[in-house]
Write a structure and sequence with these properties.
The protein is an all-alpha fold and about 350 residues long. The chain is built from 20 helices and no strands. The protein folds into three domains: about 90 residues, no CATH class; about 60 residues; about 110 residues, Alpha Horseshoe (Leucine-rich Repeat Variant), CATH 1.25.10.10. Helix content is about 75%, strand content about 0%.
Length: about 350
């Protein structure tokens, strides 16, 4: 017994004692880590079983509701099932429209799920808040408006954009007045997401944008014009004229991207000779949209530009003019004496001719 006890006693040498207790500590930590892994695995399996039970219980009801066969009596929705119910509801709602979507909304209201979603929105974890914004947005829940507006200021980009989407779903007109300035100010919101959210409120956003543009700081105008381009908003001619007359290249190019009316034709023609090649590129594209037969000569002159992209976009603009047929294009190509102009024009014609034959 004395020998056994001595075998496990800490060494008297300080270095050996340090190594001994370090080994003991590492062993204990390894055991604790192993126990924690086992615990997490058990919790995961228990959650998966709960998820499976919730899905097995509610999926048939969802399927019946979607096809218009809502049961007269619904089972009680337990507190443990609510997160799984909301997750499945949001997943289905994202792919449905019309009567099926309305039926899912009615089901959620019958079960009082919007009350739980409001609680999740105010005090839930991040994932719960994201689910709550989606559910309340689909429901058009006006009572959650103030909380959603608070979340739009969140540094969490995904959460803030989800809250903005929900506001647009609840009230597009009120949301447009509030959101449009925010979208212009926050560069961390990707333009693709901005356009996707505002698409459902493009008409009220157009009115807000027209009033807002004259008051914006110069550094904000390019982003505002990009939003207008993404939403295909027709801005007042005076606003576009001022932008195209600016010395800021970003403003000029932003305006040229959305020019769509012949009223701006003369000003765009003047930009075909701009010193910046990016402006010439976009001016050529704009003339292709709003030009008249007299602009063929102007675009043909750009086929000899020193910048390849200018030559290429000018050639595309000519080929896409509706009043020029294949014979007209071939005649124009034969008349070109500049080698670079002839080459780029031939390339663009070759790119479009296969499409014509297929059509």
């Amino acid at each position: 017994m004395t020998l056994s006890t001595a075998a496990f006693a800490a060494p008297s040498d300080p270095i050996l004692a340090t190594a001994y207790w370090t080994g003991i500590g590492a062993l204990v930590l390894t055991l604790l880590l192993g126990l924690q892994i086992i615990r997490l695995r058990l919790l995961l399996r228990a959650r998966q079983r709960r998820d499976a039970r919730a899905l097995a219980r509610w999926r048939p009801i969802f399927n019946a509701v979607i096809v218009g066969e809502t049961p007269a009596g619904l089972p009680a929705l337990s507190k443990a099932e609510r997160p799984h119910f909301i997750k499945l509801w949001v997943h289905l709602q994202a792919s449905l429209r019309g009567d099926a979507s309305d039926a899912l909304n009615a089901l959620a209201r019958r079960l009082g799920v919007e009350r739980d979603a409001r609680t999740m929105l105010a005090r839930g974890a991040r994932t719960e808040r994201l689910l709550a914004t989606l559910l309340l947005g689909h429901l058009g829940d006006r009572d959650s408006w103030d909380t959603l507006r608070t979340l739009t200021a969140s540094p969490d980009v995904t959460l803030s954009l989800s809250a903005l989407w929900a506001l647009v779903r609840i009230d597009p007109h009120a949301a447009a007045a509030y959101l449009t300035p925010l979208f212009i100010e926050r560069d961390d919101w990707a333009m693709s997401h901005v356009a996707g959210i505002l698409k459902e409120a493009s008409a009220p956003v157009a009115g807000v944008m027209a009033d807002l543009l004259p008051t914006l700081a110069p550094e904000r105008l390019p982003r505002a014009l990009r939003i207008a381009e993404a939403l295909r908003i027709d801005l007042p001619p005076a606003v576009l004229a001022d932008a195209m007359a600016s010395s800021d290249i970003g403003l000029v190019t932003g305006a040229l991207r959305i020019v769509a009316t012949p009223a701006a034709r003369d000003q765009v023609r003047g930009l075909l000779a701009h010193a910046d090649w990016q402006v010439r590129v976009l001016a050529a594209k704009a003339i292709g949209r709003i030009g008249d037969p007299s602009d063929v000569e102007r675009l043909a002159a750009l086929l000899g530009d020193r910048e390849w992209w200018v030559r290429y976009r000018a050639a595309q603009a000519i080929v896409e003019l509706p009043w020029l047929g294949p014979d007209d294009l071939d005649a124009l190509h034969a008349s070109l004496t500049d080698r670079f102009a002839a080459d780029i024009f031939a390339q663009v014609i070759a790119e479009t001719r296969p499409l014509e034959r297929v059509a």
